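Hi everyone,

Forwarding the result from last night's run.
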Amino acid sequence: MLAPQRQSIGLLGATAIGIGGMVGGGIFAVLGVAAERAGGATPVAFALAGAVAGLTAFSYSRLAVRYPSSGGTVTFVDRAFGVGEVTGSLNIVLWAGYIVTAALYASAFGNYSATLVPGDAGPVVLRVLVTVGVLVPWLINIADASLVSRSESIVVGVKMTMLMVVIAAGVPQVSTQRLDPATWASPLSVVAAGMLIFVAYEGFELIANASDDCRRPTSTLPRAFALSVGVVVVLYVVIALVTVGSLSPERIVETADYALAAAAQTSLGQLGFTLVAVSAVLATFSAINATLYGTARLSFTIASEGELPDALERRAWKQPVGLHITAALALALAVSMPVGSISAMASAIFLAVFAVVNVAELTTDPSRGARAVAWAGALGCGVSLVVLVAESVRNDPAAMAILVVLVVAALLGEHAVLKGRRHGRMRLAAADRAGD
């Protein structure tokens, strides 16, 4: 008989998982994109995206209490709707979302690293730096995957410290004129900007993956989700205030790929710029590392359920094949697409996945109050997705075309290639149960 697993994660640990997951490379990658699109309303854009994230976090907290496991999103969708073509396709789309997110972090790594290179780093140097940002974490995962978890807490501390320094030094430099409503983009553009950078809030869902290790989960999980999202929303809004209030619109456009470092320069000089750039390089590198690590295991789990080809259950160089596929696709996206396009793709994927998770909460929770919040979350994600896609089709059709190809490939692959495999797995499982 196996000894019961020790539940070792308390409120502080669970909250740290959520904050660490969100405050990764996202804020460094998308801050300039949001400021460029929303103008003085950038803090409002971050607040809107945070509201949608908060509603969805409520659904995650309820589902995590009801279905504690390391599977997180995959488990919730399968338990709510059953294992089938739609859920299988959604799980593959979720994997694609993490691939695109890794590409976003790699782009940010390259852009911030380029600011530390003497002279003017051209496109070739930038692509080399992006490539390094993917290949080195890939090699680390192959050599010793345990380095990922051991280094993560250190990098999270560095990130949070530097952000606090930027805020403390930058608030006195903020010009209220640059935040005046006259500097705001149109309401639709502000909403679209908020949804474009929604990927910056991706990461709170990782708390659910640790739900079966939490002490007193019925109280710990809801508080951890609420605290982590609440803290990050405030953090992002204040950072947006400092950035937009410190930089002219022209400077924001000029430094969109490394706006946070440029904002630090206004209050702390070149030292501030360099410190933030170095912190961003560490943060994005760590985020790539962790994303490759987690996504490799996600792809292995999905394959083991019969929702990916048999080859994805195998290992190469002692790691799941999904690690190598994720790294290759993320690198291809990062070197071929601008940050704004990658951000739009990642945000659209997670808005779609989170909408389904809110619906999963609706279908499994009879509580009237919980259903009302889940409805609001599903509606918020759905409307946000429509606004984001509509704006992106108008301004960035190439990104949306690639996104459509990814989704269609997931649907067709699940139907044409994987249906028989999944049904075979289900028949074997039924036969095993009958034999028992």
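Residues 1-5 have pLDDT under 50 and may be disordered.

Cheers,
N.
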